[in-house]
Design a protein that fits this description.
CATH superfamily: Response regulator
Shape: globular
CATH architecture: 3-Layer(aba) Sandwich
Structural class: alpha/beta
Helix content: 40-55%
Largest sheet: 5 strands, parallel
Oligomer: single chain
Number of helices: 5
Distance between the termini: 18 Å
Order of helices and strands: EHEHEHEHEH
Number of domains: 1
CATH topology: Rossmann fold
Radius of gyration: 14 Å
Strand content: 15-25%
Strand order of the largest sheet: 2-1-3-4-5
Length: about 140
């Protein structure tokens, strides 16, 4: 279920504490509500289940469980949650695999605040639009 409020609830998942801190700062400046942080895909699954974020910003390469594996598990359990993949080592294969697995967007590190906020705005608006469309379809069914 997508939160229809003005402040999207975001989960940050990255094994690098500096990257999480930077992303948290960028998101808060853009009126996003950071509701949790995890260091790997295992933590991402646990927090996603418990906190039900609207958007997840998740690193691709992490220890224990990487972003692609976590993305697949999250989308299987919660298809309505938008997931934005993050990476410092982009490749065409990574992008294609992530999008095929259900990622809504891809952001390359190092972060540029404007790019992060623009991307999240687009992802959030698309998620809200899909949720509204699904909800309207259920009412007429």
């Amino acid at each position: 279920m997508v939160n229809q409020s003005a402040r999207p609830r975001v989960l940050i998942v990255d094994d690098n504490e500096l990257m999480r801190t930077l992303l948290r700062s960028i998101l808060r400046s853009g009126d996003y509500q950071v509701i949790g942080e995890a260091r790997n895909g295992v933590g991402a699954l646990e927090l996603t289940q418990r906190l039900q974020p609207d958007v997840i910003c998740m690193d691709l390469i992490m220890p224990q469980m990487g972003g692609l594996e976590a993305l697949q598990a999250i989308k299987a359990m919660h298809p309505g949650i938008a997931v934005v993949m993050l990476t410092g080592k982009p490749s065409v294969d990574n992008v294609h695999e992530s999008i095929a697995a259900g990622a809504s967007a891809f952001i390359i590190k190092p972060f540029k605040a404007g790019k992060v906020l623009d991307t999240l705005e687009q992802v959030w608006q698309a998620a809200r639009s899909r949720a509204t469309t699904r909800h309207a379809g259920q009412e007429t069914a």
